[in-house]
């Protein structure tokens, strides 16, 4: 059947409108950087922001703590995660471009900070949460530290080994708030001012469970040759078996999962949890890997 020129024009505009509608349905993306990084370094999250903006064509907001790059950098070490999460909750809640919801990507410690945001900030509509090299069960060791000297890194490690759960360290050093000593689980649960809380290990906060289960997908990326995060299985919510620091147990073997303290078991049964792996060192991925593995969760 032949169509008139008028009908062809109409069909063209209908198709164009449909395409624009599909494009408009793409959600914005929020990024949260890790330790030793900032929102906007061109060689790290600044580059990731431009990459996502150009390839997915959406609004991308890279979280900045404070009023300058210097303040943002220092925040990764010196501003308590609870304070950071409160600040980001308020900031994102007033961003008009995020009102319809967004996808979120956390990098290293930004991963658990974003998860805390999901659990605590009920005003936000977060569709998919992607964590790259996150420390969901904490860390027990700092073999390498990006962007700071090895001597400083060693001092951090010694401080955390001997004083992580003192009030001073819990309030002064960000990394102490997700330090998880498997040799002293009771001390960790009672003294951790951040991680033990967001993992519902002190008591079960039903709001955390409810908000986390609102996610469409919770995607965890583990870097199989990670030399920074110890143990690397914390990136998939695994950790050392309690009482020692050699043998690892996966998420399904942990009390958090068995007792479903965060609702992760229910999410797994609903096919909401996705485990991905990358063969690089910590946060070492290519654009090709990112496109192939993560773009489907960002559209």
From TrEMBL:
BP GO annotations: receptor-mediated endocytosis
GO cellular component: lysosome
InterPro entries noted in UniProt: AB_hydrolase_fold, Palm_thioest
Cleaved signal peptide residues: 1-24
UniProt-recorded Gene Ontology molecular function terms: palmitoyl-(protein) hydrolase activity
EC id: 3.1.2.22
Broadest EC class assigned to this enzyme: hydrolase
Keyword Glycoprotein attached: yes
Keyword entries, A-Z: Disulfide bond, Glycoprotein, Hydrolase, Signal
Residue ranges of the TM segments: none
Superkingdom in the source lineage: Eukaryota
Record carries keyword Signal: yes
Swiss-Prot/TrEMBL catalytic activity: S-hexadecanoyl-L-cysteinyl-[protein] + H2O = L-cysteinyl-[protein] + hexadecanoate + H(+)
Gene3D superfamilies (UniProt xref): alpha/beta hydrolase (3.40.50.1820)
Family membership: Belongs to the palmitoyl-protein thioesterase family.
Matching PANTHER family: PALMITOYL-PROTEIN THIOESTERASE 1, PALMITOYL-PROTEIN THIOESTERASE/DOLICHYLDIPHOSPHATASE 1
Name listed for the protein in its UniProt record: Palmitoyl-protein thioesterase 1
Taxonomic placement: Eukaryota, Metazoa, Ecdysozoa, Arthropoda, Hexapoda
């Amino acid at each position: 059947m032949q169509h008139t020129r008028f009908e062809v024009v109409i069909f063209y505009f209908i198709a164009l409108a449909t395409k624009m509608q599909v494009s408009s349905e793409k959600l914005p993306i929020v990024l949260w950087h890790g330790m030793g990084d900032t929102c906007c370094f061109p060689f790290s999250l600044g580059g990731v922001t431009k990459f996502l903006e150009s390839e997915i064509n959406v609004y991308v907001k890279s979280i900045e703590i404070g009023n300058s790059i210097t303040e943002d950098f220092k925040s990764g070490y010196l501003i308590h995660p609870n304070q950071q999460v409160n600040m980001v909750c308020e900031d994102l809640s007033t961003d008009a471009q995020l009102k319809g919801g967004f996808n979120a990507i956390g990098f290293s410690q930004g991963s658990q900070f974003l998860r805390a945001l999901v659990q605590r900030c009920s005003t936000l509509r977060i569709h998919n949460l992607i964590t790259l090299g996150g420390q969901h069960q904490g860390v027990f060791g700092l073999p390498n530290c990006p962007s700071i000297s090895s001597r400083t890194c060693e001092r951090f490690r010694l401080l955390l080994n001997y004083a992580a759960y003192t009030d001073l360290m819990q309030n002064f050093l960000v990394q102490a708030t997700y330090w998880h000593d498997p040799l002293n689980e009771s001390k960790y649960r009672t003294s951790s001012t951040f991680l033990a809380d967001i993992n519902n290990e002190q008591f079960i906060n039903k709001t955390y469970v409810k908000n986390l289960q609102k996610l469409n997908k919770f995607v965890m990326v583990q870097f199989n040759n990670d030399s920074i995060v110890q143990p690397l299985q914390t990136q998939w919510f695994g950790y050392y078996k309690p009482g020692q620091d050699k043998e690892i147990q996966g998420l399904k073997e942990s009390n958090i999962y068995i007792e479903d303290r965060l609702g992760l078991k229910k999410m797994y049964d609903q096919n909401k949890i996705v485990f991905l792996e990358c063969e690089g060192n910590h946060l070492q991925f290519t654009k090709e890997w990112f496109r192939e593995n993560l773009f489907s969760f960002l559209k």
